[in-house]
Amino acid sequence: MKLAAIGSGAWGKNIVRTLHQLDALGAVAEAFPHLREQLAVDFPGLEIVPDFYGLLSRPDITAVTIATPAASHHRIAKACLLAGKDVFVEKPMTMASSEAQDLIDTAEASGRILMVGHLLLYKPAIQFIRDYLAARSLGRVFTMHQERMKLGKARAVENALWSLGVHDVAALLFIAGEVPNGVSFSGHCGLQSHIEDDTFLHMTFASGCTAHLHNSWLWPQDQRGLKVIGELGMLDYDEKTETVTLLKKRIDEGLNNVDDGSEVLFTAPPGFQALTAELQHFMDCVKTRSTPRSCGRNGLDVIKVLEAATPPAPAIHGLR
């Protein structure tokens, strides 16, 4: 199996490198000359083209990965699906739920695999948390609190939620095992008058659980993690160390505080690479014609949450 990577920028270069390591990289389409020059240095002999259109008729290219600016995802992914290619598209899947639904319909009509790059779903710690909660090991889940903040790259089109929080929303829906029945949002515009640098997303679920997400690219520390508060204890997922700790803390029926210490429940295997697992999963789905864990409908659920919270700026829809 040979794949074409469309886009080799900030995150796309990681996809290119990983596909090369998996011996699955057939070609790269990159619009920027300086990035093509760097690719030629890093991967001697690799086929590098300035646009993807010439790759669509190639029978040796069975699938593509797309890591281009988010506003271009719909246009590129649809062209690839219509050309008979299976598609892996980075997050966010699209910038509108109507576009996401169109990609799903196109993939189903053409019998193609459509997968969205929700990386957290391929981290074993997230799968562990989902299974742990499904087994009712924390009893009833009250709240989930996720954060992703750092001094990061400010965007001129999408806000911090659309830029940083897509993975987190996907993970929260995956862990909850349901879509929210209520969404609210608040944010602060500091650097630009119309783009929120610091955002808060709140979701409610029919099960009674609530989830809260804090994203910021204007933050002094790099903070990434998830806390789950249940009736029998609390989970603390540290994304940096890939560990899940059970905090045996709760408030009992008499409203007394209980603290029975803590226990590390899960640590990711040494050297585990989520991107490798994610792309290998995509290739396995292409081979077996199986539905990916982060399929198009999963991507649509995430876009619907983001859209309900904060519709993207009108300028986004002009970038095609």
Mind sketching the topology for me?
Layout: E1 3-6, H1 12-21, E2 25-29, H2 33-42, E3 48-49, E4 63-66, H3 73-82, E5 86-90, H4 97-110, E6 114-117, H5 124-134, E7 141-151, H6 160-164, H7 166-176, E8 182-188, E9 198-204, E10 210-216, E11 218-230, E12 234-238, E13 243-251, E14 257-267, H8 274-288, H9 296-309
Helix pairs in contact: 3-4, 4-9, 5-7, 7-9
Outline the structure in words.
- The chain has 320 residues and is an alpha/beta fold.
- It has 2 domains: 3-120 and 274-318, 3-Layer(aba) Sandwich (Rossmann fold), CATH 3.40.50.720; 124-267, 2-Layer Sandwich (Dihydrodipicolinate Reductase, domain 2).
- 31% of the residues lie in helices and 29% in strands.
- It is built from 9 helices and 14 strands.
- The protein has helices spanning 12-21, 33-42, 73-82, 97-110, 124-134, 160-164, 166-176, 274-288, 296-309; strands at 3-6, 25-29, 48-49, 63-66, 86-90, 114-117, 141-151, 182-188, 198-204, 210-216, 218-230, 234-238, 243-251, 257-267.
- The strands form 2 sheets. Strands 8-9-10-7-11-12-13-14 form an 8-stranded mixed beta sheet. A 6-stranded parallel beta sheet has the order 3-2-1-4-5-6, sandwiched between helices.
- β13 (243-251) and β14 form a beta hairpin.
- α4 (97-110) packs antiparallel against α9.
- Residues 313-320 have low confidence and may be disordered.
